[in-house]
Fold these 2 entries.
Entry 1:
Amino acid sequence: MDLKTLDEFGLNSTGLKALAEELEQNGSEKFRKTYNCAFLILQHSPPQKDEWMDLETSESSLPKLSELKNATNHIRVIPLKKSNRNAYASKITVGRARNNDVIIRSPKISKLHASFLPDSKLNYKIQDMASLNGSVLNGQRIKAKKRIALTSGDIISFWRYVFEFVSLDDFISRLEIR
């Protein structure tokens, strides 16, 4: 994805509708070859007016997992793919700096906040890179530098940005149901 495509949430994401249309037009085989990765689906983001305020950033300020189903934000999706911006060969990096694969332009997100570590079978692990405000997996803060295996449907939070981690197969299944 091009850096010029940061959306209204400060993310380098695309709309779910666009991906559904791409799948419908090209078929699942071509879609798999094009993406060949898992996805992050934005579930919750902080209001833009709160972005530069000094807010409480502890885990307690995150929305409860049960409240996510009622979120009314636009459905934004980030493919977990390597870009040509990141120097780490084996990591998909997340942070506010422009050299990350997943960019979240917020002052509460560290320049290098976290990373995803995929293997050849598209199994992913997540690692917090000792970020200031931490990363949370399914309501539990991730210890810095600890690698934790992910399962499709896991909820990941970077500050007040909350995402659902979805495997390629599950993502295609969801799009085909639409």
Entry 2:
Amino acid sequence: MVDARKIKENLERVNARVAEAAERGGRLPDQVRLVAVCKYVDAEITKSVVNSGALDIGENRPQQLWQKAEQIKVPSVNWHLIGQLQTNKVKRTLPLITLLHSLDRLKLARVIEQQASQIGVQVDALVQVNVSGDESKSGFQCSEVEYALEQIMECQHIKVKGLMAMAGLDSDVPTTRREFESMRRLQDRLQAKYGDQITLSELSMGMSRDYEMAIEEGATIVRVGSEIFRE
């Protein structure tokens, strides 16, 4: 049985920690958006999260996002795809999502452009960066991002809103902070170079284990799941 009260309490606690981290980073709380990651829970529990006030919902798998979007018909919910998007799932996914966090390869960008053109939508997306260099992680290497961004900017139906990254699986606290800091520097550098063509206002980084640190280093979006469902 869903403990809706506990979910609401946890969500309030996470929101408070987000606000405190934003203030430590010299920003207002409303300058950081919390995406509630519901990839490990069913539609019933996800709906409890929505009813508790979280309107930005993150899903890892397109199929789960499709199912939940069909079952949770709340117009104000923003669906975020945070996991890898396979090219054969692009067409069905695009009309449902508010933001794609994982634009991680040029082949995907080309398929999105083709499908978005056919169905008449514009896709807001974040370019995924493999900031830690982990072989198990997808995304562009830091040295590849500039070229990738130039290619993606040529797509008429993709609007790049910023960057996304995850700290390394084996990164300790100092290393994680350095990785987040390097992402903020990369965002600033790209904005300075391409500012007359694009606005890279979003920086999605930080999960349950490190979202406060990410906010302190400049994250505008954090993706938190397990902290919301803690018993």
